[in-house]
Amino acid sequence: MLEGKVISLIILLPLISFLILGFFGRRYFKTFSGIVGTTSIFASALLSLITAYQYFFVVGQVNGVYQKIIALKYTWLQFTPNISIDLGIILDPISVMMIVVVTFISLMVHVYSLGYMKGEDRFSVYYSFLSLFTFSMLGLVLACNIFQIYIFWELVGVSSFLLIGFYYDKPSAVAASKKAFIVTRFADLGFLIGILILSFNAETLDFETLIQRLTSPESNFLKGIVASSFLGFSALSWGLVLVFMGGAGKSAMFPLHIWLPDAMEGPTPVSALIHAATMVVAGVYLVARLFPIYALSCPGALHVVAYVGIFSSLFAAIIACTQTDIKRVLAFSTMSQIGFMMFALGVSSYGGENGLGYMASMFHLFTHAMFKALLFLGAGAVIHYVHSNEIKDMGGLRKFMPITHLTFLIACLAIAGIPPFAGFFSKEEILSAAFQSNPVIFYLAIATAGITAFYMFRLYFSIFWNKEAHLHGEHHGEGSGTMLLPLVILGVCSIVAGFVPFGKFVSSDGAELHTEMHLTFSIAPVLIALGGIFLAMSFYKNANEKANNISVALKGIYTYAYNKFYFDEIYLFITKKLIFNLIGRPAAWFDKNIVDGFINLLATLTQEISDTIKGMQSGRVQNYAIYFFFGIIGFVILFIFLLK
Amino acid sequence: MNQIPLEHILFVSTALFFIGVYGFFTRKNMIMMLMSVELILNSVNINFITFNKYLFPDKLNGVFFSIFIIVIAAAEAAVAIAIIINLYRSHNSIDVDDTNEMKY
Questions:
Q1: What's this model's pTM, rounded to 2 decimal places?
Q2: How far apart are CA B20 and CA B35, in angstroms?
């Protein structure tokens, strides 16, 4: 039984908590804000688990195929009889999987923040923003209408902006939040145009109808949208690529990735929730949501997805090897892993065995959320301990933080793809999907997997081994129970999540997808990952000069990678030098001189005229009488002699 | 009995009218201006009576009009004098040029 009203509570509970904490938190709740927020998200998580159980095991399946269930639908804005913006709840395997992931990770982050943010001045504001984010993200994944997804898409953007800029007295945080908002907003412009193109041609905003109208070959809508073309590509390709542009902005795909590393200015739990596990995978989710259209009607757009994905993945992995801020390493690793999900979607096709990539992508999204949240929370614990983000301030922490050390190791093994940890299973599925359809992508992906193992263990060894810890002053221990509990839970999840028979639940067409592990196939990726790990071990386990020597030997490339291939500078050049100078300044000049000038001219004219004629109102009654008299005479002449 | 020609009467009334207008424009004393207005009104009265007599001798419309005008002129004189008295109390003058700050 799936009651729409009950499911809507999953979304509404965080909203209520946001409103309560936002309005009354600072005055009435103070330190209890955390409890309020955590309780509401706990209830929400519980409800989504029940929903998932009901959906996957009781009512979701009809004849072995998981159905799309519209649990709730409310017409909000009716434009024409055909087009309306609805607010509703769609339940299908990916949305149900996503609500579980979102509420679960969000719960972990809420609990963790109880310890991490303790004593913060704006504690309740922090929790109200977290609730706002959770609400928006749940609304996004449950959206049944492409415009609803857009609304919540912007809402997650806003909450991300608010949370990145949480420490608003820090100029770098303010700059980072602005950057994140502007870059994603720019991408969302593409998304909006894409929505308009698709919905204009399909005459609907509803997902189900949209997919159905744009996939069935005999549909007139599909013929129309394919026939109309612009710059040599069909309107359908444009629409889908532009929608993907929105997704790429949110998911930090090349070349719209520049905001993600800077977004690490926010509090670390926020990075775990928003910039690792949930919001940044919204782009993947969006492509997955429209996947039938991509796969059946426009494989060209899907190729774009695949190549952008693999390129971002490799690109980010290379940069991650050179960064020294641990959160930035994790940010680039997130970008790289999302690249994996993207190209897995890109190499997939619709239905049956060929839909492996789709399932693998969703599987990786699921497992990645667990271990990447764990990595971030672990990094948060480390930062909390040493009060620094820089690798050079760390080292030898394994004796001081045993639990963090162990869970961090689990997460690193998971992301490196070592069996039997979660990342292994999902990454194997992705690699085999790539292997079946596109060898170029496969080899690049396997190289990226090796680099991933290397930089993750570079991080691990640098933090927990390397030199002996030199700690100054007394220390407060590893952290409170509320910080360690989520680490342990997520650590356990990172081990067991891989054993979920994912293909049974999530597949491109809803039918069960049998996946089997090919042991021989798995050998190569695992060996490469192990190679990466051993390389990192020899470089970083003990303090030595090897890594330094290599970076000196690779001088040019190292500098390029260290500076993120100068993409920030390129963007700054394009915006500050080109756009500001060539478009901004002339536009400002035009505005200042022509537009304002015209208005000022009107004002000056009015003033001049009134200056000259205001003497007429002298206050002398007899002057008025003379004006009146000659006025009458004028009228007399006019009417009697001139207008006969 | 010889009738006075129409032109003569109109000449008188026109002269009276313009004397009134001239007085209204040039006198600074408000009482004088009020008197000039009375001249203008009376010139109109003369016109009404004259045209009534010469054009429609068996009707009385013009006569009634002039009676109305006399009544209204009396009322107007009362109001005007009341205004002038008030003005005198506040300004200590009935010179029309001294009242130009009333424009504000």
A1: 0.78
A2: 8
